[in-house]
Amino acid sequence: MKTSFAWISGVCAAVLSLSSAGCDGGGDGTGGNAGAGGSTGGTGGTTSPAGGGGTGGTGTTSMGGTGGTGTTSMGMPFTSKGDSSYETQTSLAADDQGGVVAVWIAFFADNTSGIGYAVSRDGGDTWTAPSVVKSPDGRLASNPVVVADSKGVFSLAWLGFRVDGNGPDEHIYVSHLDNGTDTFGAPIIASDDGTKTTLDFDKPGMKVGPADELLLTWADFSATANGGPANLTFARSTNGTDFTKSIITSDATFGNLASLCVDLSDPAVGAPLHLVHLGANGTVTLRTSTDDGANWTLKSTPATMTLFQDITCAAFGKDLWIAYASGTALFSPTEDSPADAVMVMHSSSGGTNFDTPVDVTNGAQGEQFLFPQLVRAASGKLGVVYYQGVVDGNAQLVLASSADGKTWTTSPIAASGKLTIDRTIASWLGAYVGFAIQANGLVSYADNSENKSHIKFAQIALP
User: Fold this and answer.
1) CA pair distance 339, 233, nearest whole angstrom
2) 298-306: long-range contacts at Cβ-Cβ below 8 A with a sequence spacing of 24 or more?
3) Which of 459, 461, 462 is nearest to 94 (CA)?
4) CA 73, CA 63: separation in Å to the nearest integer?
5) Cβ neighbours of residue 22 under 8 Å, at least 6 residues apart?
6) What does pTM read for this prediction?
7) What is d(CA 217, CA 260) in angstroms, rounded to the nearest whole number?
8) Cα–Cα distance list, 15 to 78, 194, 372, 439 (Å)
9) CB burial class (10 A; 0-12, 13-18, 19+) of residue 418?
10) Left, alpha or beta for 194 (phi > 0: left; psi -120 to 50: alpha)?
């Protein structure tokens, strides 16, 4: 969904090493209610629910509230703290050469936001200082997602938007990391030609295809202002610059929070693409394409009581796994919907038929769950990370792992502060976490133990 604090529609038993994540660098800005209006909102002060007065952090690293690039300093522990007041909503990607990139939303005390990031070239042992990439023309930034291709090229996508009352004026941007400088380059508009100022988008998702092409999705609500349908859009690029777009659906089967998965062990063009998203009436919707996303076949799943949280998937050959949050919490425009269970369902037929969904959690009575993220290691092991705790009580990041997808073992990764569900405060956990596989598991997540969120990083075993 949009990172919207006034409009929402729709980082150690298992730890190999947990860096001093978020402990060094920037000081503590005063968190408070987020700024009003728009898709992201600004950083507010404790006495300013309208979004003013937050005190920004200072420290040895610099993210630059006006969009400057932080000073690169290898050998430092991971930190998201620069000049931003707080950071949340993180994504993570890794290549097979030790490169790791973590990204997040960085909120500044002047009510602006950008996409913060840090880069590691040794599997997460040391990191650059946090830097930031800004949306063009003063737009705010939200919903970052980062991927890595087989050549070690990292690409970042996010939603840029305005809150000045001149219509939604939103675009999906893509930027590529310069491996020489470890900085993201000038943004490219992937969603449109850049001339329209009335476009209304949400929740970009991105994956790399079997031929290293970029595969991008987003929800498009532009037509709804005039009574038209919302649609789910797919875009494909073979050069990272030019995107061929098609509409996946614009009918009653439309759903937001789309996520792609593809079996990268098969480099053939035309290898099946799988897309999952939240469907009508609390369902998991699955679509499959065998023509590089030009056409999609709708398939049914046995999921029920699906909540408004991201749905993720993993594929290998004919095997497909889908993880989702399940429960009875109602959707709220200002609060996340905590789950009573994290479910994983498996298909051995490419999504034609599914086994009975399995609850992978092992929480105490009354505990609930947020933002499950599923990955499959090359060994075949499966992992799901998620937040666990009692709402407004202590929270922890947890790993559920399995060798067969049927029997799951849970292990705590790290404490993450409080299990907040209020999306309008600086301690918001952020709607999703980062999870990637390299020599071991790598996760980025939000920790709000300082009463506002900062991003942390951990290397974890995947038993």
Assistant:
1) 28
2) 298/249, 298/253, 299/351, 299/352, 301/345, 301/351, 301/354, 302/345, 302/354, 302/356, 302/357, 303/343, 303/345, 303/357, 306/278, 306/279, 306/282
3) 459
4) 13
5) 11, 78, 79, 80, 81, 447, 454, 455, 456
6) 0.85
7) 8
8) 15, 44, 18, 13
9) buried
10) left
Residue 144 and residue 184 in contact, taking contact as beta carbons nearer than 8 Å: no
Dihedral in degrees, nearest 10, Cα atoms 166, 167, 172, 175: 10
Mind listing the pLDDT tens digit of every residue in the chain (463 residues)? 545 333 332 222 233 333 323 333 233 333 333 333 333 333 333 222 223 333 333 333 333 333 333 334 445 799 999 999 999 999 999 999 999 999 999 999 999 999 999 999 999 999 999 999 999 999 999 999 999 999 999 999 999 999 877 778 999 999 999 999 999 999 999 999 999 999 999 999 999 998 899 999 999 999 998 899 999 999 999 999 999 999 999 998 999 999 999 998 766 656 789 999 998 888 899 999 988 899 999 999 999 999 999 999 999 999 999 999 999 999 898 999 999 999 999 999 999 999 999 999 999 999 999 999 999 999 999 999 999 999 999 999 999 999 999 999 999 999 999 999 999 999 999 999 999 999 899 999 999 999 999 999 999 987 5
- Unique residue bearing structure tokens 């943004």: 187
Is the separation of the CB atoms in 77 and 23 below 8 Å?
A: yes
What is d(CA 317, CA 455) in angstroms, rounded to the nearest whole number?
A: 34
Residues 6+ apart with CB under 8 A from 234: 215, 216, 217, 245, 246, 247, 248, 275, 293, 296
Residue found by looking up tokens 């889908």 in the block = 322
Q: Which residues pair with 322 in a beta bridge?
A: 313, 345
Count of other CB atoms within 10 angstroms of residue 107: 36
Structure tokens at 286: 């699955």
Alpha-carbon distances of 155 from 46, 152, 183, 235, rounded to whole Å:
36, 10, 11, 14
**Per-residue tokens: 309:** 């949280």
Residues 45 and 254: their CA atoms lie apart, in Å, by 38
The DSSP element (H or E) to which 312 belongs, if any, is strand 312-316
Q: d(Cα 2, Cα 226) in Å, to the nearest integer?
A: 21
Q: Identify residue 180 by its one-letter amino acid code.
A: G
To which residue do tokens 């305005």 refer? 162
